[in-house]
Design brief:
Elements (H helix, E strand, L loop, with lengths): L3 E2 L4 E4 L3 H11 L5 E6 H6 L1 H7 L6 E6 L8 H13 L7 E6 L1 H13 L5 E6 L2 H7 L4 E6 L2 E8 L4 E4 L9 H18 L1 H5 L9 H21 L14 H13 L8 H19 L4 H14 L7 H10 L13 E6 L2 E6 L3 H12 L1
Parallel strand pairs: 2-9, 3-4, 3-5, 5-6
Antiparallel strand pairs: 1-2, 7-8, 10-11
Helix pairs in contact: 5-6, 6-7, 6-9, 7-9, 7-11, 10-11, 10-13, 11-12, 11-14
């Protein structure tokens, strides 16, 4: 696959990844390499990466525990201290090997250590490949509130090796599909249509879909890197999706949802709201709901869950001047920005989801 070039970095695929990495390492003067991994990627992925790196630069492996609950300031503090103790300086390189938690957190650690050192992302989950590792967003959660602390800072390069997907459990694969479905809904009806019957997809098809999904996000980010306008469309389904994810993460009576599982719910809710506010037709709304639920199991909500989830919306990063802004759809591929939605309509959407 042809590398995807952005203004600041390039994204390499499969057989080209390690050649590109080795050329980059030989052309730069890094003092030391630090790999940030979790226990899964330390066991399943880093041996393969190390076997394909050709460099005399010394390295250390820094392992954190997997899971969204570890995407916090305490883990960052531990990593900053480990970097200092192991002699990291401003010419050191961090290579993040993992899913969205690792690339978000590792990118933030690199961007803030000694006012910023270089980092490379090697995403190993589908979600990280098509979304988290692309576009320069780095950050951590504030308690159970998603992505409240962070900076936009791009990696030196992103290396996509889809062979790592074979290490993923099924629910993690589904989680990544949510972001790919979103890319179709906000940007490309033809791309969305490719997901209407996933049973026919081959491994080769998946590689192509990943490539096309990354292209969609890259093209949006290139036009609006600081999320002042068009890039907001990438938040489709995320306003309620993040609130749902945070609520389930903080509620000991609930089983935590993966990011994509929560966003899948958020997209169905946003689709229904779109029929009431932005003219999305009912047939398309039903197509969106049925297509998403063909992949994702339905989440059960009680009526007493609605208001606590709605209360969490005030912490959404897209809010301005106290107003909660939604991305909605006029049609597939035609998003509408900065829509205000009443609490009553949100509850109505939850009831539609449950029906």
């Amino acid at each position: 696959m042809t590398p995807i070039n952005t203004q600041d970095y390039s994204i390499y695929f499969n057989k080209d990844t390690y050649k590109a990495l080795n050329e980059h390492l030989s052309a730069t003067n890094y003092s030391k390499i630090f790999f940030i991994v979790d226990e899964n990627t330390n066991a399943d992925c880093i041996p393969f990466v190390l076997a394909n790196i050709e460099t005399e630069i010394s390295y250390d492996v820094l392992e954190i525990e997997s899971g969204e609950e570890n995407k916090n300031l305490d883990i960052c503090l531990g990593l900053w201290e480990a970097l200092s103790e192991h002699g990291a300086d401003r010419k050191s390189l961090i290579i993040n090997i993992g899913g969205g938690v690792i690339t978000d957190l590792g990118g933030f650690v690199a961007s803030t250590f000694k006012r910023g050192i270089s980092f490379i992302n090697i995403p190993t989950s589908l979600l990280a490949m098509v979304d988290a590792s692309i576009g320069g967003k780095t950050g951590i959660d504030l308690g159970h509130l998603k992505n409240q602390i962070g900076v936009i800072n791009t990696a030196e390069m992103v290396l996509i090796d889809t062979a790592f997907l074979s290490t993923l459990p099924e629910n993690q694969m589904r989680s990544g599909l949510a972001e790919m479905l979103k890319h179709g809904l906000i940007a490309d009806k033809a791309y969305w249509n490719k997901f209407l019957d996933l049973s026919k997809l081959t491994t080769e098809d998946l590689d192509t879909l990943i490539y096309e999904s990354i292209l969609i996000k890259k093209n949006i980010v290139a036009q609006d890197p600081k999320e002042e306008n068009l890039r907001k469309t990438l938040n489709y389904g995320h306003t309620l999706g993040h609130a749902i994810e945070s609520y389930y993460l903080s509620n000991e009576n609930k089983t935590s949802l993966l990011h994509g599982e929560a966003i899948a719910v958020g997209m169905i809710l946003a689709s229904y709201i779109s029929t009431k506010l932005t003219g999305l037709n009912e047939a398309t709304n039903q197509e969106i709901k049925s297509t998403i639920l063909d992949t994702f199991s339905k989440v059960t909500f009680e009526e007493e869950d609605y208001n606590p989830i709605i209360e969490l919306l005030i912490y959404d990063k897209k809010n301005e001047h106290g107003n909660i802004h939604f991305v909605l759809l006029e049609d597939i591929g035609k998003p509408v920005l900065d829509c205000k939605v009443s609490n009553e309509l949100i509850i109505e959407a939850f009831k539609f989801y449950a029906s």
